[in-house]
Amino acid sequence: MSSVLKLEKYKVYYKTFVDTVKAVDGVDLDIRRGEILGIIGESGCGKSTLVQSLVLPKPPMFIAGGSAKLLDSIELTKLSSKERRKILLTKIALIPQYVLDAIPVIKKINVFLRDLAKDKKMKYEDVLNTFIDRLKLVNLPQKVLDMYPLELSGGMRQRVVIALSTLFKPDLLIADEPTSALDVVTQRYVLELLRDLVTQKLVGSIVFITHDISSIRQIGDRIATMYAGKIVDVGKLEEVISSPLHPYTAMLIKSVPKLENSYRVSRLVGLAGAPPSLVNPPPGCRFHPRCPFAMDICRREEPPLTNMDRDRYVSCWLYSKR
Amino acid sequence: MSERKIILGLLKKNTRFWVCLSLVLVIVILALIGPLVTPYKPNQPVVRDGKYLRSLPPTIEHMHLFGVDNLGYDVFAASVYGLRVSLSVGAIAAIVATVVGVILGLTAGYIGGWADLVIDGATNVLLAMPPVFIMIMVGTFYIVGLGMPGRELQNILFLGCLIGLLSWHWTARAVRSQVAALKVSDFIAISRLSGNHPIKIIVKDVLPNIASYILLVFVIQLANALSTAVTLEFLGIKAAEWSLFARVQQWLQMGALITGVWWALFLPGVVIVMLIASLYIIVLALEEVFNPRLRRV
Amino acid sequence: MYLAGFIQRGDKDMSEAVLKLENITKIFRLGLLGKTTIKAVDRVNLDIVKGEILGVLGESGSGKSTIAKLILKIYEPTHGRILFKGKDIRIFKGSRGLKNYYMHVQGVFQDPYASFNPRRRVLSTLIDTVKNYYPKLLKEDLEKIIVSSLEKVGLNIRDVMGRYPHEFSGGQLQRLSIARALLVNPEVIIADEPVSMVDASTRIDILNIFIDLKDKEGKTLVIIGHDLGLTRYVSDRVVVLYRGQVVEEGIADILSEPAHPYTKMLAESIPRIDKIWGSKIQYGVGSIELGAKGVGCVFADRCPHRLDICIKKEPEYVDIGKSRVKCWLYTSK
Fold first, then answer.
1. Which of A62, A233, B179, C8 would bridge A246 by S-S if both were Cys, CB 3.0 to 4.6 A apart?
2. Does C138 touch chain A (CB under 8 A)?
């Protein structure tokens, strides 16, 4: 199993006027060819920073350490902006959370395609034809070519961005909360579409970030949990969902009511407290203030990401040996 | 991180803001201390060695920093005294326009209904009238004493109020739309649910949230009022004999430009233009800082 | 199926409807000349029974938030009337009338950060509220009320003192929003999407607060949202809205076995943690416009079971046991 993207001790911080936010603080992650990896994380865990830093890091964001190797050869942390633009859409693509960030609002879609073709030094007709093919895949009429992004509804814009992101068959597609602000039916459509992109080999692998674990359940091959700037739990989807190891993952799964759950039958319990500050994270394991199983060592030392064999990794003193 | 910290931080970095603010402050200080520095008076022709001086280009000698115009008045003295007058008129006009505009805008936006209709009607009437024309008409009849000494204060107040009362509608419209949008926000709804009286809501919830907006509009009004005041001076509506461009008509009659006394017009002109332009740039900078969507960070 | 202490549909006549929406319609005018109209709520009839938790389920554009604002007198209905304990709420007008109403009916909104004045400390806002409603009470008694409200939402006054809204997490601030609503001890609380902007792991705890308010204090709750699973969890009865109309209404169980095609579509389209999707869906991926179209069934253009009559005539409500449905498929000829 070769890896598409390998993150090692990857750190991304950003400077505000008063302090430094350690949004991504030492992430180890391996994204493999042909898989869909879902990263589950809530607000304040650093997932959006992670995603943006891989594609187009902008000040005040800066890479504070570690490495991010794309396709075993391209070191993302050391690219110039010219090199970054070259691999954008061809090797790595991003569907950002706010779709209007992805495409310029004031250009018609076909004009945007023309500029894109010029930028990638390709013929406009080739790019256009590929795009028309993709439009069929995302179930959009050809007339969107002649429209401005603002004229489209949220769901249609999302599908246009998905079509654009697959134009050059990138090895890695990153989707940041791809289904937020969409109606329920379109959400299912977009999730299944992402899965089709991989099975039809229009993209190599997909990483998608979300706070909704049920979405990952539907299309993910593996799932990783992100908390306070770190990845704390990784494994095959079925295994993690059926027997979660990290207490945070376990509580996330328990907080999702199944459709038959009524409070009159049984009460569910949520997770107390709030995510820690990324400026001054707590010592030791970052989850210990909220963890029902916190032990002494959890308050002092950070547990390493341990390989539990069968391709399962956890960062928790319940499982890691000293 | 709190909004206030972000605003202060962004402001600190914004060079345009500080450059223009310094310019404005320099000009204001000039208007304040200038008259104490220059030995000349704006309404007394310069006499030296028994002779009336005329048409002297700017020199350091004898502190004629802006020269002497073709009527014999020291241009620097005329400028700094005149700035005082013009700035006072502009400031009064801006304050009047802002106070009236904010009160009417709040009423129209928050109470709505008939209040909104009445105020909207008044705004439309004002929009239809040509302001400068009216100012000329009113000014010609009511400016007392054609700018003679002793009447300045009265005239400054009058001109300021006149300009202000003909420009409040911009502020009112702007404030009204902000308030109307706030009114249906969750935030104000909850304030009502908490039992707060409408006046208390306006003062404690609405006003603080539009305060930065009002500041912006005030500065724009100030810049506009200054432009208007100076334009009126050109046309003879002046608060004092020595208002910045009050003597333009006389210069033209005497062919000032043909005889080449450009410094009399150009130098005060540069000062006032820089002032007004700086005010506009300050507004742009402030807007960037206050409005999260325009920030470049 | 009858559960003790819980109101079944048939018992409606025997139990008190504390809030009643009679044929409520709300039309908004947009545009400079007010020519464009949007019918956000379309002839909605709703009985909210005392002591129940009513879940209002709908997507964006369904009119659910408008209904909340109509009940809370933020908007006024274009047609129809709302009755509180039998009285038309229109009589609660002016500062005093509104205050009187708000002592009985309170609200909690979606965005906790937009619910508090960012320039004032949260505790000041709470103190203001109690002072407004209990002007004659002494300081110690006012403090007691605040402390008691905070306890009900699981917060300690020491956690709250001296802090501004932006210093709290979304979940904590939403709890404070609920505490604020509880200060006047209202009988009814209308919560508009109370957990949509809160992290998934905290949502359950906040919904549990509402459940405790019903169980321990007999309060009536109306909880509005778009998440099927959460609505099912927290509600006794549910109402499903689509484009301003009620399409289905009944006990909460109906969300697991929906009757109306729209509710079925929702149930089939949401991602579930316990089941993987089966075959691909056949629903039209249309965009949701605001307001109903006027002729025929409001869901006809997207319904896979559409009949001829659905396009021509608006369906009537049919009682099918656990629920009542607005659909021709259930009308026996």
1. A233
2. no
Is any Cβ of chain B less than 8 angstroms from the Cβ of C102? yes
For the entire predicted model, the pTM comes to 0.82
In chain C, residues with a C-beta closer than 8 Å to the C-beta of B184 are 74
> What Rg, from alpha-carbon coordinates, does chain C have?
21
Contact call for B187 and C184, based on CB within 8 A: no
**Is the residue at A273 inside a domain?**
yes
State whether residue B181 sits within 8 Å of chain C by CB.
no
Write down the pLDDT at residue B294.
60
Q: Looking at the partner chain, which of A42, A217, A257 has a beta carbon nearest the beta carbon of C201?
A: A42
Q: Tell whether A147 is covered by a domain.
A: no
Is B187–C98 a contact, with Cβ atoms under 8 angstroms apart?
Answer: no
- Is A226:A38 a contact under the CB 8 Å cutoff? no
Which residues, 6 or more positions from A36, have their beta carbon under 8 angstroms from its beta carbon?
A194, A195, A198, A205, A206, A207, A208, A219, A220, A221, A222
Q: Is residue C166 part of a domain?
A: yes
Question: Is C233–A263 a contact, with Cβ atoms under 8 angstroms apart?
Answer: yes
d(CA C324, CA C316): 10
Domain of residue C149: give its range.
120-185
Q: Provide the number of structural domains found in chain A.
A: 1
C284 part of a folded domain: no
Sort out which chain C residues have CB atoms less than 8 A from B193's CB and list them. Answer: 72, 102, 106-107, 181
The answer to whether residues A281 and A22 touch, using CB atoms and an 8 Å cutoff, is: yes
For C102, the closest of B3, B184, B195 (CB atoms) is B195
| CATH of the domain spanning B3-36+70-294 | 1.10.3720.10
pLDDT over threshold 90, residue A178: no
Give the confidence band of C5 by pLDDT, cuts at 50, 70, 90. very low
Amino acid at position C111, single letter:
D
Tell me which chain C residue has its CA closest to the CA of residue A191: C271
Distance CA C179, CA C153 (A): 6
| Residue from C221, C233, C269, C272 to probe the interface with A (highest A Cβ count within 10 Å) | C233
The side-by-side arrangement of strands in the sheet containing C36-49 is: C36-49, C17-30, C79-84, C87-88
Residue C207 counted as domain residue: no
Q: In this predicted model, what pLDDT tens digit does every residue of A241-270 receive, in sequence order?
A: 999 999 999 999 988 888 888 888 888 888
Cis peptide bond upstream of A292, omega within 30: no
**Structural domain includes residue A207:** yes
Chain A residue closest to C226 (CA)?
Answer: A184
B55 C-beta neighbours (distance < 10 Å), count: 16
pLDDT at C286 over 70: no
**Sheet arrangement for strand A61-70:** A20-32, A3-15, A61-70, A74-75
All residues of chain A having their beta carbon less than 8 Å from the beta carbon of residue C272 are 214, 217-218, 258-259
**How far A100 CA lies from chain B's nearest CA (Å)?**
13
Label the pairing between strands C53-57 and C220-225. parallel
With CB atoms and an 8 Å threshold, state whether B1 touches A18.
yes
Contact C243, C298 (CB under 8 A): yes
Other beta carbons less than 10 A from residue A47's beta carbon: 23
Q: Which residues of B touch C102 (CB under 8 A)?
A: 192-193, 195
**In-domain check, residue A146:** no
CA B10 to chain centre: 26
State the DSSP code for B203. Answer: I
pLDDT given for residue A147 in this prediction: 86
Partner residue opposite B208 with nearest CB, options C111, C119, C180: C119
Beta strands C237-242 and C53-57: pairing type?
parallel
Q: What is the CATH number of the domain that holds A9?
A: 3.40.50.300
Q: Of residues A278 and B73, which shows the higher confidence score?
A: A278
SS3 A85: helix
Distances in Å between the alpha carbon of A26 and those of A29, A303, B122, B284? 10, 12, 63, 41
